[in-house]
Write a structure and sequence with these properties.
By secondary structure, this protein is α/β, with parallel strands linked by helices. It has 2 domains: 163 residues, TPP-binding domain (Rossmann fold, 3-Layer(aba) Sandwich), CATH 3.40.50; 96 residues, 2-Layer Sandwich (SIR2/SIRT2 'Small Domain'). The chain contains 10 helices and 9 strands. A 6-stranded parallel β-sheet has the order 3-2-1-7-8-9, with helices on both faces. α9 links the parallel β7 and β8. The longest helix has 15 residues. The protein starts with a helix and ends with a helix.
Length: 273
């Protein structure tokens, strides 16, 4: 075990009754076959024009095009399974709670791999791929708090003719367009209650005593919030990533894939997978 990982082990062992905050990005799901956004893998989504397609503006202009694009992405990762990194985070949560501590996982990912691995104390701050919501504010199925299970929406007609705007899925309550239940690039963390941004802010600015980033590019607002909060309170900060994408003081880099480093961490602290 190299020195940075041993430092992380020691930090976890010290954080007995306080909160451990883990923030994951797309890198943790790479070993499950899901491409990153800004990584170096051949399928990195950021290499495509996601900043234009992944917007509410594009949805309003072309709802059929937005649905077609997102379904093509989701279809490529259908059937993906949690990897050892996901399972290690769930194990770390169980370990921390069992010894009287607190734990929070904040994931930027919209896949459901953390849930499948067993994570419970979790905020999906960018939304989730297994739910849709109405685009009309005030609708029961729309913001600030409404959504529907994706499995409850029949997409047969739309998939047969995805260029036909008349076949875009509609809300069963008001007849408005349904949309993906995710945070788009031209939206805010406060757009929907499910993003639980207040909970993230409390963890970042008050509650956490150890912060562990995993597989993130540090390119979004939530990572800046957590970094600033940890630095202001002099909380230890670790970054688990085989190719760290940030070079700033105060961060200890564990340069290794999460699916190996996090498993070693759990084994070292006695957190059964």
């Amino acid at each position: 075990m190299d020195a940075p990982l041993q430092e992380l082990v020691s930090a976890v062992q010290r954080t007995k009754t306080a909160q451990i905050l883990v923030v994951t990005g797309a890198g943790i799901s790479l070993a499950s076959g899901i491409p990153t956004f800004r990584g170096n893998d051949p399928g990195a989504i950021w290499k495509k024009d996601v900043t234009q397609l992944g917007t509410h503006r594009f949805f309003k202009e072309d709802p059929a095009g937005s649905w077609e694009w997102y379904l093509s992405r989701f279809d490529k990762v259908a059937g993906a399974l949690p990897n050892p990194g996901h399972r290690a985070i769930a194990a770390l949560e169980r370990f921390q709670l069992a010894r009287g501590g607190q734990f929070l996982l904040v994931t930027q990912n919209i896949d459901t791999l953390h849930e499948q691995a067993g994570s419970k104390a979790m905020v999906k701050v960018h939304g989730t791929s297994d739910r849709y919501r109405c685009d009309r504010k005030g609708c029961k199925n729309g913001p600030p708090g409404g959504s529907v299970l994706a499995s409850s929406v029949d997409l047969t007609a739309f998939r047969a003719d995805p260029h036909n705007s008349k076949l875009v899925p509609r809300c069963s309550e008001c007849g408005g367009y349904l949309r993906m239940h995710i945070l788009w690039f031209d939206e805010y963390y406060t757009e929907h209650d499910d993003y639980q941004f207040h909970r993230v802010r409390l963890a970042a600015e008050r509650d956490s005593r150890l912060v562990i980033f995993v597989g993130t590019s540090f390119s979004v607002g939530v990572t800046a919030l957590v970094l600033d909060g940890a630095r202001d309170r002099k909380v230890p900060i670790f970054n688990v990533d085989p190719t760290p994408r940030i070079d700033e003081p105060g961060i200890t880099h564990v340069v290794a894939p999460s699916e190996t480093a996090l498993v070693e961490l759990c084994e070292a602290v006695g957190a059964p997978l």
